[in-house]
Amino acid sequence: MKYCFGIGMSSCLNIYRQSDVYTIVPRMTVVIVVVVMAECSEQEPKWPADPYPRPDISYECMMGSTANNVTTEENNRSRAPAEDADESMDAGSEEETWVFYKDREEWADVTPVPQDDGENAVVKIAYTDAFTDVFDYFRSVVSRGELSERALYLTEDAIHMNAANYTVWQYRRKILRHLGSDLEQELKFCREMIEMNPKNYQVWHHRRMIVEWLGDGSKELRLTEIIFSQDAKNYHAWEHRQWVLKTFKLYDGELIYVDQLLEEDVRNNSAWNQRHFTITQTTGFTKEVIQREVEYTKAAITKVVDNESPWSYLRGVVQHSEGGLGSVGDLWEWCQNMYNEGQRSPHLLTFMLDLMEDQMERQPDLRTTQLKRCHEICEALATKHDKIRREYWRYIERNLSHRFGA
After folding, report:
1. By percentage, how much of the chain surpasses pLDDT 90?
2. If we measure between CA atoms, which residue out of 76, 128, 72, 131 comes closest to residue 101?
3. Across the chain, what does the average pLDDT equal?
């Protein structure tokens, strides 16, 4: 009977057994890792098939500037990780192999620095040989303070293997500055990496730094639009777009673009947020703008009453009015008409509560009748229309009674 460590985590990992030690190979972001002691039998365990097989692609496509280090000679060198998933190649093509840095003549003067996991690593990650080779040489380059063209190419290989390694990105910027490299070319490389890793903090930050150095944000709005065509709610792209708009004052046409997004998907909460951001940074919420936005939002709500995004936007708009929530247009009558027509969306009822609360704040003589109505709506939300938040509505009911009751 033997004992081994069991690994509990998301299915985005491959687990391999080497002798009596179980190791893991990272595939995507690890969600949770729990180390537990489990009793293991002498028999070799049968692991389930990999639910996320790696794509059958050439590593040459992944290695960017150093692709010339991929050779077709047949030898015993390890192939790149991307080729491990499938032994077959296209008909008529020769097998491609990755040339390790330790086998490259131009790197013969560098002594690699291995990763120090300590004497007794609990869960040792089974890096591929190519990954280990690249990062061993990267650590050596950093320790030497080398800021050369070859070091720049090395960072590119390291980024392709782990685009989330912020140390590599930072050191790459240091090299770019030192060499006075072509930053337009760097923007092209950065765009490639963003398209491969659209939700990676480090690559977006790197893009921002390069744009800052260039002092030119003219390409950035188009880049974010390309990303939004794939994922309209990509937080990183929206953050980058807002930074570009503020930094380079490129607000012209932004509301038109937001209109297009909302026309395509009225539930796009990111677009609603961008609308508020754009108005705040440009005209501000003047009396005329508030009235315009209220009518615009009412039309959007009419399309899909259960869409929470425009209700939140509407609340944010009317809060800019000095006369209170109910002072803009005919919001109370509009809500009451929908209610009378049988509409019981939790968002409608919640907005009606907000309007009545504002009325009770400003007009004490209405408190008795409006408080009774508030109790009825809270009860309806708690028991019929939003039961999952029952206790919350009970709390709101008590709170209103405490504030406006006799």
Report:
1. 70
2. 131
3. 82
Separation CA 183–CA 222 (nearest Å): 18
8 A C-beta contact, residue 100 and residue 133: yes
320, 278, 313: which is closest to 299 by C-alpha? 313
Indicate which residues carry an active-site annotation: 199
Instruction: Name the residue with tokens 């509505």.
Output: 393
pLDDT at 398: 96
Q: How many helices (H) and strands (E) does the chain have?
A: 16, 6
The pTM of the full predicted model, rounded to 2 decimals, is 0.75
Query: What Rg, from alpha-carbon coordinates, does the chain have?
Result: 29
- DSSP secondary structure letter of residue 367: H
- Taking the mean position of all CA atoms in its chain, how far away is CA 32? 18
pLDDT on residue 54? 33
Residue type, 367: R
Token pair in block for residue 266 = 């009225």
pLDDT at 327: 82
Enumerate residue ranges in the chain where pLDDT < 70: 1-96, 406
Judge whether 65 and 150 are in contact, CB under 8 Å.
Answer: no
Phi, psi at 70, each rounded to 5°: -95, 125
Q: Which residues of 304-333 are buried (b: 16+ CB within 10 A; e: fewer)?
A: eeebebbbbbbbbbbebbeeebbebeebbe
Q: What is the DSSP string of 302-341?
A: HH-TT-HHHHHHHHHHHTT-TT-GGGSTTHHHHHHHHHHT
